[in-house]
Please model this.
Amino acid sequence: MSRFRDYLSLAKPGIIFGNLVSVSGGLFLGSQGYPDLRVIVATLLGVALAIAGGCTLNNLIDKDIDALMLRTQKRPLPNGRVRDLDALLLGLLLASSGLFLLWRYANPLASLVTLFGFAVYVLLYSLWLKRTTHGTWVGSLSGAVPPLAGYCAASGRLDAAGLILFASFALWQLPHAYAIAVLHLNDYARASIPVLPLVRGVSRIKRDMPLYVAAFTLCAILLSIARYTGWSYLAVTLLLGAAWMRSAWRSRNGDDRVWARQSFAWSIAMVMALSLMMSVDYVHPLHDTNAPSSGLMIAFLSLVR
Model:
């Protein structure tokens, strides 16, 4: 049982669950009220397996720095409870299984989008740029793939809504990741990982955090401006975005860790609310009477029935 827990921990179940929330948002936005149960199951399972594979390989690549950080020293690989070869084979098996499920039971586009995210996370981020000042920015690209994969799986296309979704979640990753970096700043210093709060100072990150949140919020509301989501989504996004910015600004002069915990909590609340609202407040083309062509389309459908 302990061996199973070790292998399970390599897949980082917490990260998988968090990403599946955003996958669900993309799925329901892309399906616009007509979800296909087979596609939903295949997408959630396929993306979960791909993320598990990426996290397992990330654990293998980060074995040396994990041994230096207090919060990761007891992980199975630096602790010697799991062999490197076993982790490598498990990571590849999990990822390839997930990509196959997406290709076979969702659509090839969703599989290719997920493969892109996997490659960025493992090759660009973990193997190359994580240990540079560019790591957070590159990691944000892979972190934005799950909702896009869900959207592509349900809609079968990569359009403006998918690109807005991708850009929004990429921008969300920045304040989320910087809050985590401040929380674990001493560990990153021990492992010589040049996260931005170490390079530029925590005060600089605290000063800039509202700008990151503002950029994310403005990008996220484009879904409503482009009429992919409705007024409820717009209102919730603006209200939570403003509250997050206000919290980050008002608490910037306080204790660093308290500020980081608050910012992290707001980031989680924001992504949960965003995923929920895009699931229930989509604008269906055939029901949007304000769209230029939808009124004509409804009239045409009523004639041919």
Summary: The chain has a mean pLDDT of 91.
